[in-house]
Amino acid sequence: MALPAGRAILGLFGDAETAAGASEALERAGFGPEEWEVLSGAPYPPGAFGEHPSPHRLYVFPFVGAACGFAVAVLLTVGTQLAQPLVTGGKPILSLPPMIHVMYEGTMLGAILFTVLGIIFESRLPKRQIGVYDPRVTAGYIGLLVAGPEDRLRRAEQALRQAGAAEVVTERYRHG
Hints:
Blueprint: E1 6-13, H1 16-28, E2 36-40, H2 60-83, H3 96-122, E3 142-148, H4 150-162, E4 167-173
Antiparallel strand pairs: 1-3, 1-4, 2-3
Helix pairs in contact: 1-4, 2-3
């Protein structure tokens, strides 16, 4: 998710219920779900804190990979059999039963490779610098990162403190 350029603040919360309450406080302060981001070391389901689930197209990658793998496997088997046309026992040069195994493996290999590439692509790796971060997020705290103009961030900081933030960290946010 792309946060607006400018400054950013990070509210740290000790538990999920307090962080969810802080997201509601941010909405009451006039911040939409697209203006803040949840940082957590634990895998919470999308939308658990009221944020917009980020859209993805991960399901497309295996299908594209399977089609590419199938096409390569067909070209490989057909090309090999046509390059070395050995007629054995009057059987046809292009025989489907031996080709099926190679086509199946090529299809699966393409789907798996494209799925891995899709995960890397959809995870936005390498990750952009978020600017404000606290190591306590990986130690179990939940962070709400709010970015925007200075005047709006004062309202966000006040809302986060009133919602029970353990600490509010501020730092210059580098967009990118």
